Each structure stands twice: as C-alpha cells, then as structure tokens.
Amino acid sequence: MRLIPGSLSRTLSTRWVFYVVSMLAANGIGALFVLTFIRYGLPVSPGPGLIVRDPVSELVLAIYLGFASVAIIGSAIVMLRFAIRWYVRGGPPTRREQIMAVRGPLIQSFVYLALWLIGGTLFVILIGREMPELMSTTAVTAALAGVVTFGFTYLLGERIMRPVAARALSDGNVDPRIAPSVRLRMAIGLVSGTLVPAIGITLLSFTQLSTHAYAPRSFAWSVLLVAIAMILAALVTTVLLAGQVSTPLRQLTRAVTEAQRGDDAQVEVYDGSEVGLLQVGFNQMMADSAERRVLRQLFGQHVGEDVARQALQFGTELGGETRFVAVLFVDMVGSTAVVSTKRPADVVAMLNQFFNIVIGVVKRHGGFVNKFVGDEALAIFGAPLYRADAPTAALSAARELRAELEAMPEISVGIGVSSGTVVAGNIGSEERFEYTVIGDPVNEAARLTELAKSRPGSILASSYTVYFAGEEEQEYWELGELVALRGRTKLTQLAWPRPPGQDGDSSGHDDQQEPNESGIDAEMR
After folding, report:
1. Residues in domain Guanylate cyclase (predicted)?
2. Nearest to 325, CA basis, from 416, 378, 399, 386
3. Using CA atoms, how far apart are residues 106 and 153, in angstroms rounded to an integer?
4. 384 prior amide bond cis, ω within 30
5. Can you state the angle between helices 95-130 and 55-89, rounded to 10 degrees?
6. pLDDT the model gives residue 186
7. H or E element: which one contains 492?
8. Half-sphere exposure of 457 (CA within 13 A, CB side)
C-alpha cells in the first residue's frame, strides 16, 4: 500500500476538517434560529426563561443534540473513508468512490434533513408537554428551518469539497447522472434561500389577517426577524449558486483566450452536471485540436505544406488532373563512394544538410519537394498550387540551388529542369496513397540530371522550359545542342546557365528568346 502524497493528504485533511466544522456550524445556526425565533420572534412570546423547563426534557434534548453532532461527523467520515481508499490505492476511482466524491455533499445533506425531521418532532413533543399552544408553530418553524439548512449545507458542502470532486472527475469518466443537475441546484437554492422564508412570512401574515391574534408591534418584529433570515439565506445561496456557474465560465473564458493565443489550454473538471460536461467537452476539444495540429504538422512535413493544406481544405481522393508544371530533379554524384568512406551517422548528417538546402531553395521559389529517393530529390513547380510562372521559378531555383550547394564542397550534384503537361494527383490505394506527378517532363528532368553530372556547371534544362520562362530569367540561360536522352525518342535541345559576366545581348541572345525551331518542334512532337 502506498502512502498518500503529502500535498493530497494536506488538501484532503484540511478540506475534511473545514467541511465538518462548517456542517456543524450550519446545523447549529439553524437550531439556534429555531430556538431564538420561538423564544423572541413569535408575536405571542412564551415569556421569560427557558422554553423547555423540565429536567427530563432538557436531558433528552441535550442527548439528541450530541447524537446529531456525532451523526454529522460520522457521515463525513464515511465520505472521507472512500476518498482515502481511492487516494491510497491510486489510479482512477471506482464508480462508488466517484459518486461519494461528487454526490457526497448532497447525500449528507439528506442525512441532515432526516436529523432535522427527527429532532423537530422530538422538540415539538417536548414543547407540547409544557406549552401545547406552541406545538403547531414550533413544528412549522422547525420544518422550514430544516429545509433551509438542507439547501445551505448542500451548496456549501459542494463548494468546500470541490477539489476532491475535481480529482475524482479528472481521473475517471464523467457521468452526468452521478451529480445533481444545474436545474436541480437552482431549485434547491430558490427553495431554501427564498421560497421557504417567504412561506414563513406568508403564514404569519395569514394568521394575523384571519385571527387578529397578534399585536401589531409584535407581528412587525416577527416579520422583521423572518425577513432578515430570508435576506441572509438568499444572499448566501445566491453567492454559492453564482459561483457554481460563474467560476467555470471564467475558467472557460480564460482558457478560450489562451487557446486563441495558440497555447494548450485546459480547465479543471470539478462538476458532474452539465457544467462538468462542458468542461470535459472543452478539454477534449482542445486535446483533439492539439492532436490535429500535430498531425497536420507531421502531415505537412511528410507531404509538403501545400499538399497538406489542399488535402485539409478539399479532402483526399484517388485520381488526378492535368497540369502544366516545371520539374526540378537533383541528384548527388558519387554517393556510393561517399557512403562507403563515412560513418552512417556522418552520412545521415550530410544528407540532412543537403536536403535542407534543397528544401529551403525550392520553398523560397514557391515549389514543392515531392519526394526523396536516396540522395535524389524531385521538386514540382505548378502543382498542387497552380502558378503561371512555373518554368521561371524552376530555372531560378536551379541556379540558386547550385550556388547554395557550394557550401558543401565535399559533394557534387547534377540538376535537371524540364516542363510540360503532367497528371498530378493522389496515386495508390484507399489505404495508402501519395501525391505525385506523372508525365514525360519528370522522365526528361531525370535524364537531364544524369547528363548534367558530367557537364560544367552541373545544370541542364530543356529549351522548352527556357522558352516558357520570363524574359528576365531567359537572360541567364543560353541554348545548346540537340541530344537524344536515354530512353527517349524525341530530341531535346539543351540549355544551361550563361557564364557569369557574359553579356546577355551578345550573339545568341536571339536564340535565347526564340530557341532553335527544330528543338522546339522536336519537343512539341
């Protein structure tokens, strides 16, 4: 058996002592009010001295008051026993332990009501032995005071034991049937704080109007005493009821504000009624939101932000659409030799640095890194998000990528750029699919990359791509020969970046604007 944690033990013992003292005080104040009202508040006073003068009656009354105090403490011990057993055992509470933690104050308030019923009956009998004329008045006063005490002790007890209920509801499942509803609590507050005192005033007034048995001055003092009790009861019950509604609303308001700032907000669950369901619902909503945020982040990291955003906005389904795109393919030269001479951890670090540069450059130019295959990367411009300047962006990204990779002198790469019409969409099955592009430009970019590995500058593009690029980007490229790329029957006219410092208006500039017709014709065919 493990010991109760110090903080929990202190909270439990402090709350329990405060609860017992409060319940004894509340019932004592109720009994004192009954005695005071009968002795001084009735329009027809029983006269000076004690109300109960017989020694036997006094002894019986004292014994019962002691018994009631023991019953109040004993019922609290029962609730404490369940809480201690749960805390010592650890883990979520059983349903019975959860009920005692949440519904305990209401159950004990019914115990107090039963004690008032028994005590009131006994008190009426004792009064009747000496002053029969006060029996009916005493019975009504005791009954009304018992109802007020019942409502007050429940609302106060629920507030005092809230931390224990919060722990029970947080560690277990919230069942709205184990706690009084908000409507029932409001009804208890209305009855005990307003309706019952109002009934007392009404009975006094009805008796005065029907019998004229009370002197006006005595009647006024009686009504004033009951009115004061009514004001105090209404004030206390209103404060307790308002706290049951306003406190969770304030917590939810703060939590919503924190959530709007992007924080992971949670509220304490301390109620099993509709309020508790609202608290649990908010916490579950925030947990689901955090999970979706993580999944969205992971989804975006795996498939790309643009693909993730499009999937979240429009959903995912198999199939694709025809798009005009530009394709950038980059491959590391001699990676097999590099892997054989380095430790695996160093190889992974090098590849991560390499791909980090690739991703950064492609992202800055509005592209989408579609996939990594070993030491190769395929980037798409124009899908999934359409852009009219896809060739311009791809060519500019290729030049910048070559410059960025100079920071890694230990590797060399080949970069190929192509453009054309492809089918872009989700390929695979319902259980597993990925967003990709399929078409001749992808194959052409891969073949250009192979060829670029053995060419100065390590970058090759198709003249078709340069032709559809913007005029400013065309200034950086010059056209070359027609070649037959591996696995392709169509001829491809090559293009590569113009050497730095070369005048863009020198001979061959016209070719930049209007590529070799035979090359274009071959590409179009």
Report:
1. 326-449
2. 386
3. 8
4. yes
5. 180
6. 77
7. strand 491-497
8. 17
Token pair in block for residue 340: 């054989």
Backbone angles phi, psi at 299, to 5 degrees: -60, -45
How far, in whole angstroms, is CA 3 from its chain's centroid?
32
- Asked if 326 contacts 382 with a C-beta cutoff of 8 angstroms, the reply is yes
Lookup result for tokens 């650890």? 90
Helix (H) or strand (E) holding 317: none
Distance (Å, rounded) from C-alpha 279 to C-alpha 291?
18
Contacts of 94 (CB under 8 A, 6+ apart): 86
Is residue 489 within a helix (H) or strand (E), and if so which, with residue range? none
pLDDT at 35: 79
Is CATH 3.30.70.1230 the classification given to domain 316-497?
Answer: yes
> Could you tell me if 271 and 179 are in contact, meaning their C-beta atoms sit under 8 angstroms apart?
yes
Q: 204-253: per-residue pLDDT in tens? A: 666 655 555 555 556 666 677 777 777 787 787 777 777 777 777 777 77
Locate the DSSP E strands across 224-334: 319-333
* Nearest to 248, CA basis, from 219, 291, 277, 287: 277
Q: Are 111 and 137 in contact (CB under 8 A)?
A: no
d(CA 235, CA 237): 6
Q: Would you say residue 444 has pLDDT above 60?
A: yes
Nearest to 328 by CA among 399, 428, 237, 228: 399
Contacts of 26 (CB under 8 A, 6+ apart): 149, 152, 153, 156
Residue 307 in tokens: 């693909």
Query: In this predicted model, what pLDDT tens digit does every residue of 364-419 receive, in sequence order?
Result: 998 888 888 878 899 999 888 788 899 999 999 999 999 998 888 888 899 999 99
Rounded mean pLDDT of 33-49? 65
Contact predicate 375/307, CB 8 Å: no
Q: CA quadruple 244, 141, 50, 126: dihedral positive or negative? A: negative
Q: Is 409 in contact with 338 (CB distance < 8 Å)? A: no
| Tokens representing residue 94 in the block | 């059983």
Contact 53, 130 (CB under 8 A): yes
What's the CA gap between 142 and 390, in Å, rounded? Answer: 88
User: Where, residue-wise, is CATH 3.30.70.1230 in the chain?
Assistant: 316-497
Least Cα distance to 138 among 62, 63, 61 occurs for 61
- Distance, in Å, from the CA atom of 207 to the CA atom of 95, rounded to the nearest integer, reads 50
Q: Which residues pair with 412 in a beta bridge?
A: 333
- Chain centroid to CA 508: 63
Q: Give CA–CA dist 229/363, Å, rounded.
A: 74
* CB contact at 8 A, 286 and 259: yes
Quote the Cα angle for 469-474-476, to 5°: 135
Measured distance CA(206)–CA(214) in Å, rounded: 11
The CA distance from 469 to 461, in Å, is: 11
Pairing of strands 412-428, 433-438: antiparallel
